[in-house]
Design goal:
This protein is of the alpha/beta class. It has a single domain, classed as HUPs (Rossmann fold). Strands 3-2-1-4-5 form a 5-stranded parallel β-sheet, with helices on both faces. β2, α2 and β3 form a beta-alpha-beta unit. The protein is globular.
């Protein structure tokens, strides 16, 4: 059993990798640099995660065209990165337009070449920032696209093991699987110490607070979110 895992370097992709590893798949890991503010830190996290799980088959893809297209505070430095607002249901500035569709397309191409029949991605709908390409219905539809757009003998399926979890549940699952949370990076703004105040940092810190465990990475600020 061979599977491609999309590994951003974040907490969700780390736990997803651990789940795929636990299920006994031979893993191949893909990471995409798309001109995001923290690309160097995320790439280093990807490499550390791969080394931890002894993943030798790795693909690092350059997708700078997403930065050229713009429209996201992750790639456009003139746009402010959204702070934490757990009550706001609008799509935040950190949304990269249709990003995950591009990532999945590349993962499907690679899977077809190397003979992988599963693609793992750490998408979270229940406690996400409201990104439209993190919804279960999106991945169900993409599985249909894969079936229609690949060779007849190909049987590739996207798996989203975290899709219905809360962030705190993801932390608990990671603790259960003994994942190295210190290798992961979630901050949207900083490559030194995590800022602690962007939407991603806030959701991560709140999840660890709810579990009653200290997040091992360093923060410039550690506000309390519960």
């Amino acid at each position: 059993m061979k599977a491609v895992v999309l590994v951003s370097g974040g907490m969700d992709s780390l736990v997803t990798t651990a789940i795929a590893h636990e299920r006994g798949f031979e893993l191949a890991a893909m990471h995409v640099n798309y001109g995001q503010r923290t690309w160097q830190k995320e790439l280093a996290s990807f490499r550390s995660i791969c080394s931890h799980f002894n993943i030798e088959s790795r693909l690092e893809v350059n997708a700078d065209f997403l930065a050229e297209i713009g429209g996201s505070s992750l790639t456009d430095y003139s746009m402010p990165v959204s702070g934490a607002d757990f009550q706001d249901s609008s799509i935040p500035t950190s949304y990269v337009p249709f990003r995950n569709a591009g990532f999945l397309s590349m993962a499907v191409s690679w899977s077809e070449v190397i003979g992988a029949d599963k693609i793992f991605i750490g998408a979270v709908e229940e406690d996400s920032s409201g990104y439209p390409d993190c919804r279960k219905v999106f991945y169900n539809a993409f599985n249909t696209v894969i079936a229609l757009g690949t060779k007849p003998e190909t049987n590739i399926e996207i798996l989203t093991p975290l899709i219905e979890m809360q962030k705190s549940d993801i932390v608990r699952k990671g603790i259960e699987l003994d994942v190295p949370f210190g290798f992961s990076w979630s901050c949207y703004k900083s490559e030194g110490k995590a800022c602690g105040v962007c939407d991603s940092c806030a959701r991560r810190l709140r999840a660890f607070e709810l579990v009653g465990v200290c997040d091992p990475i360093e923060y410039e600020e550690r506000p309390e979110y519960i």
